[in-house]
Amino acid sequence: MVAQNRRARRDYDIVDTIEAGLVLNGTEVKSLRAGRATLAEAYATVRDGEAYLVNLHIPEYAGGTWTNHPPRRTRKLLLHRDEIADLQRATEQKGMALVPLSLYFHNGYAKVELGVGRGRREYDKRQAIAERDARREADRARRRRG
């Protein structure tokens, strides 16, 4: 695991998840292997039949030279054509967004887990926190009894 978007699951109701590959430069891969990336402001979009990850911050590689990459460039996502079509249909619905949940390496390849989510309102967040706390208290009581 290189980076995780912790706020995504709090700010969105994740309906579906999908794994996508990333098109990266050499210095980006080296920087990711060093564990340096930020998903906080990133989002995914579909344009012209292709999926892109926008605003993902991968800092410049410390050992890089003039070949270093721009930290916040738009990166292409590697998905099948039917997966891209599904994502486009999902995001065309009102209130739906493509949110990167985590960035990791799988068999040597950089992958990003995308979530199709509906934005939560403030009262929805409070309700989710209250449900989680109630579930936690019930589990504690069950453990004390058993």
Describe this protein with a few key phrases.
146 residues; alpha+beta; 34% strand; globular; Small Protein B, Chain: A; 7-stranded antiparallel beta sheet; single chain
Helix content: 25-40%
Q: Using DSSP, what is the number of strands?
A: 7
Global structural class = alpha+beta
Radius of gyration: 18 Å
Order of helices and strands: EHEHEEEHEEH
Strand content: 25-35%
Please specify the SSE layout and strand pairing:
Layout: E1 3-4, H1 6-11, E2 12-22, H2 26-33, E3 43-47, E4 50-54, E5 75-78, H3 81-92, E6 96-106, E7 109-119, H4 122-145
Antiparallel strand pairs: 1-6, 2-5, 2-7, 3-4, 4-5, 6-7
In short:
The chain is of the alpha+beta class and 146 residues long.
Tell me what you see in this structure.
By secondary structure, this protein is α+β, with helices and mostly antiparallel strands. The chain has one domain (3-120): Small protein B (Small Protein B, Chain: A). It contains four helices and seven strands, in the order βαβαβββαββα. It has a seven-stranded antiparallel sheet with strand order 1-6-7-2-5-4-3. The longest helix has 24 residues, at 122-145. The model has no long low-confidence stretch (mean pLDDT 91).
